[in-house]
Design goal:
The structure is a single chain. This protein is mostly helical. Among the domains are: 42 residues; 37 residues. The protein contains 3 helices and no strands.
Length: 118
């Protein structure tokens, strides 16, 4: 018996590891065939009955590098920004006054939220 064949029989774990490695290589090489799975019969593990057919022409890729058209609107000017801030502050103050009035009208809070939840 040669040294190589003797070492194979002495290390059964190595033989199992090699078998597992072969299995992984075969599985990886077969995974590249997954695009043909629609041609495999259902009984063997193909697609089930009633699955829609693949499109005959592949979908077009989106234009990744195409630049979007320029915007028609211009950014807000400083005066517009100031006006919007003032309007928002007025609305916030108005909502706070309305809430305070509602609380003072019904201090127990029994009717709170009845307008929202009839």
């Amino acid at each position: 018996m040669s040294m190589m064949s003797a070492s194979r029989y002495e290390r059964p774990g190595l033989a199992r590891a090699l078998a597992a490695a072969r299995l992984v290589v075969v599985a990886a090489s077969l995974s590249g065939c997954s695009s043909t799975i629609d041609r495999i019969p259902t009984a063997v593990g193909g697609l089930p009955e009633g699955v829609p057919q693949r499109p005959t022409t592949p979908a077009a890729y989106p234009a990744v590098h195409a630049m979007p058209p320029a915007r028609a609107d211009e950014p807000l000017s400083d005066a517009d920004k100031k006006r919007l801030r003032e309007d928002l502050a007025k609305m916030r103050d108005s909502a706070a006054r309305d809430a305070a009035a509602a609380i003072s009208a019904d201090p127990t809070g029994r009717n709170a939220g009845t307008a929202r939840n009839p």
